[in-house]
Amino acid sequence: MASTSSFRASSSSSTPSISRTSTYDVFLSFRGEDTRYIFTDHLYSALGRRGIRTFRDDKLKREAIAPELLKAIEESRSSVIVFSENYAHSRWCLNELVKIMECKKDRGHTVIPIFYHVDPSHVRKQEGSFGEAFAGYEENWKDKIPRWRAALTEAADLSGWHLRDGR
Known about the structure:
It comes from Vitis vinifera. Residues 22-167 form the TIR domain. Keywords: Cytoplasm, NAD, Nucleus. By secondary structure, the protein is α/β, with parallel strands linked by helices. The protein is 42% helix and 19% strand. It is built from 6 helices and 6 strands. Helix 1 (32-49) links the parallel strand 2 (24-30) and strand 3. It starts with 6 loop residues before the first strand and ends with a strand.
Protein backbone atom coordinates (compact mmCIF):
# COMPACT_ATOMS: atom_id res chain seq x y z
CA MET A 1 0.00 0.00 0.00
CA ALA A 2 1.35 3.45 -0.85
CA SER A 3 2.47 5.43 2.14
CA THR A 4 1.53 8.95 1.10
CA SER A 5 -1.82 10.43 2.03
CA SER A 6 -2.56 11.21 -1.60
CA PHE A 7 -3.14 7.52 -2.29
CA ARG A 8 -6.07 5.72 -0.69
CA ALA A 9 -7.25 2.18 -0.60
CA SER A 10 -10.47 1.02 0.95
CA SER A 11 -10.04 -2.02 3.11
CA SER A 12 -12.15 -4.62 4.80
CA SER A 13 -11.89 -8.31 5.40
CA SER A 14 -15.62 -9.04 5.21
CA THR A 15 -15.69 -10.42 1.66
CA PRO A 16 -14.64 -14.07 1.76
CA SER A 17 -14.96 -14.68 -1.98
CA ILE A 18 -12.10 -12.33 -2.89
CA SER A 19 -8.59 -13.69 -2.71
CA ARG A 20 -6.21 -11.92 -0.35
CA THR A 21 -3.05 -12.77 -2.32
CA SER A 22 -3.04 -9.36 -4.03
CA THR A 23 -2.65 -6.04 -2.26
CA TYR A 24 -5.76 -4.67 -4.01
CA ASP A 25 -8.80 -6.29 -5.52
CA VAL A 26 -9.43 -3.38 -7.90
CA PHE A 27 -7.35 -0.60 -9.43
CA LEU A 28 -9.51 2.33 -10.60
CA SER A 29 -8.30 4.13 -13.71
CA PHE A 30 -10.12 7.39 -14.48
CA ARG A 31 -9.66 10.98 -15.62
CA GLY A 32 -10.19 12.96 -12.44
CA GLU A 33 -11.47 16.17 -13.99
CA ASP A 34 -14.25 14.24 -15.76
CA THR A 35 -15.47 11.77 -13.16
CA ARG A 36 -13.76 12.14 -9.78
CA TYR A 37 -16.60 13.81 -7.89
CA ILE A 38 -19.62 12.82 -9.98
CA PHE A 39 -18.98 9.11 -10.53
CA THR A 40 -15.66 7.65 -9.42
CA ASP A 41 -15.97 8.75 -5.76
CA HIS A 42 -19.33 6.96 -5.57
CA LEU A 43 -17.93 3.83 -7.24
CA TYR A 44 -14.93 3.82 -4.90
CA SER A 45 -17.18 4.17 -1.84
CA ALA A 46 -19.55 1.44 -3.02
CA LEU A 47 -16.68 -0.97 -3.59
CA GLY A 48 -15.27 -0.19 -0.15
CA ARG A 49 -18.65 -0.82 1.50
CA ARG A 50 -18.63 -4.29 -0.11
CA GLY A 51 -15.19 -5.02 1.34
CA ILE A 52 -13.43 -4.72 -1.99
CA ARG A 53 -9.92 -3.37 -1.50
CA THR A 54 -9.69 -0.61 -4.09
CA PHE A 55 -6.80 1.58 -5.16
CA ARG A 56 -7.33 5.00 -6.64
CA ASP A 57 -4.88 7.81 -7.08
CA ASP A 58 -5.99 10.99 -5.38
CA LYS A 59 -3.40 13.30 -6.92
CA LEU A 60 -5.21 15.84 -9.04
CA LYS A 61 -2.43 16.40 -11.60
CA ARG A 62 0.82 14.71 -12.59
CA GLU A 63 3.38 15.14 -15.30
CA ALA A 64 4.40 11.48 -15.42
CA ILE A 65 3.01 8.20 -14.16
CA ALA A 66 4.39 7.52 -10.70
CA PRO A 67 6.15 4.23 -9.91
CA GLU A 68 3.64 3.73 -7.07
CA LEU A 69 0.83 3.60 -9.64
CA LEU A 70 2.58 0.98 -11.75
CA LYS A 71 3.17 -1.07 -8.62
CA ALA A 72 -0.47 -0.69 -7.54
CA ILE A 73 -1.63 -1.93 -10.95
CA GLU A 74 0.68 -4.94 -10.68
CA GLU A 75 -0.53 -5.65 -7.14
CA SER A 76 -4.21 -5.57 -8.13
CA ARG A 77 -6.29 -8.54 -9.24
CA SER A 78 -8.37 -6.39 -11.59
CA SER A 79 -8.88 -2.93 -12.99
CA VAL A 80 -11.96 -0.87 -13.68
CA ILE A 81 -11.29 1.69 -16.39
CA VAL A 82 -13.68 4.64 -16.48
CA PHE A 83 -13.44 5.96 -20.03
CA SER A 84 -14.76 9.52 -20.19
CA GLU A 85 -14.68 12.48 -22.57
CA ASN A 86 -11.15 13.59 -21.67
CA TYR A 87 -9.57 10.25 -20.72
CA ALA A 88 -7.34 10.15 -23.82
CA HIS A 89 -6.27 13.77 -23.26
CA SER A 90 -4.18 12.49 -20.36
CA ARG A 91 -0.89 10.82 -21.27
CA TRP A 92 -0.83 9.59 -17.69
CA CYS A 93 -4.17 7.77 -18.17
CA LEU A 94 -2.95 6.29 -21.43
CA ASN A 95 0.29 5.04 -19.87
CA GLU A 96 -1.72 3.58 -16.99
CA LEU A 97 -3.98 1.84 -19.51
CA VAL A 98 -0.99 0.32 -21.33
CA LYS A 99 0.25 -1.12 -18.02
CA ILE A 100 -3.22 -2.45 -17.17
CA MET A 101 -3.49 -4.22 -20.52
CA GLU A 102 0.04 -5.65 -20.09
CA CYS A 103 -1.03 -7.08 -16.73
CA LYS A 104 -4.14 -8.54 -18.35
CA LYS A 105 -1.96 -10.36 -20.87
CA ASP A 106 0.92 -11.36 -18.58
CA ARG A 107 -0.82 -11.92 -15.22
CA GLY A 108 -4.42 -12.74 -16.01
CA HIS A 109 -5.52 -9.36 -14.62
CA THR A 110 -9.29 -8.87 -15.09
CA VAL A 111 -10.21 -5.63 -16.87
CA ILE A 112 -13.68 -4.08 -16.82
CA PRO A 113 -14.31 -0.96 -18.91
CA ILE A 114 -16.98 1.59 -18.07
CA PHE A 115 -17.87 3.97 -20.89
CA TYR A 116 -19.02 7.07 -19.00
CA HIS A 117 -20.88 9.31 -21.45
CA VAL A 118 -18.65 8.16 -24.33
CA ASP A 119 -19.42 5.83 -27.20
CA PRO A 120 -17.39 2.60 -26.94
CA SER A 121 -16.72 2.78 -30.70
CA HIS A 122 -15.05 6.18 -30.20
CA VAL A 123 -12.67 4.58 -27.73
CA ARG A 124 -12.11 1.54 -29.97
CA LYS A 125 -11.46 3.58 -33.13
CA GLN A 126 -10.05 6.71 -31.42
CA GLU A 127 -12.75 8.96 -32.84
CA GLY A 128 -14.50 11.98 -31.33
CA SER A 129 -12.66 13.34 -28.29
CA PHE A 130 -10.32 10.33 -28.40
CA GLY A 131 -9.31 11.20 -31.97
CA GLU A 132 -8.85 14.85 -31.01
CA ALA A 133 -6.49 13.84 -28.22
CA PHE A 134 -4.34 11.80 -30.60
CA ALA A 135 -4.16 14.64 -33.11
CA GLY A 136 -2.35 16.62 -30.40
CA TYR A 137 0.09 13.77 -29.72
CA GLU A 138 1.29 13.13 -33.27
CA GLU A 139 4.24 15.51 -33.08
CA ASN A 140 5.83 14.73 -29.71
CA TRP A 141 4.70 11.22 -28.74
CA LYS A 142 5.12 9.17 -31.93
CA ASP A 143 6.90 6.34 -30.08
CA LYS A 144 4.03 5.85 -27.61
CA ILE A 145 1.05 6.33 -29.92
CA PRO A 146 0.92 2.74 -31.28
CA ARG A 147 0.87 1.27 -27.75
CA TRP A 148 -1.77 3.77 -26.60
CA ARG A 149 -3.95 3.02 -29.62
CA ALA A 150 -3.61 -0.75 -29.19
CA ALA A 151 -4.47 -0.54 -25.48
CA LEU A 152 -7.57 1.59 -26.16
CA THR A 153 -8.75 -0.75 -28.90
CA GLU A 154 -8.19 -3.87 -26.79
CA ALA A 155 -9.90 -2.40 -23.72
CA ALA A 156 -12.88 -1.14 -25.76
CA ASP A 157 -13.37 -4.65 -27.16
CA LEU A 158 -13.90 -6.05 -23.65
CA SER A 159 -17.31 -6.54 -22.15
CA GLY A 160 -18.21 -3.68 -19.82
CA TRP A 161 -20.82 -1.03 -19.07
CA HIS A 162 -21.95 1.86 -21.21
CA LEU A 163 -23.39 4.66 -19.05
CA ARG A 164 -24.98 7.63 -20.77
CA ASP A 165 -27.35 10.38 -19.69
CA GLY A 166 -27.53 9.06 -16.13
CA ARG A 167 -28.49 5.53 -17.22
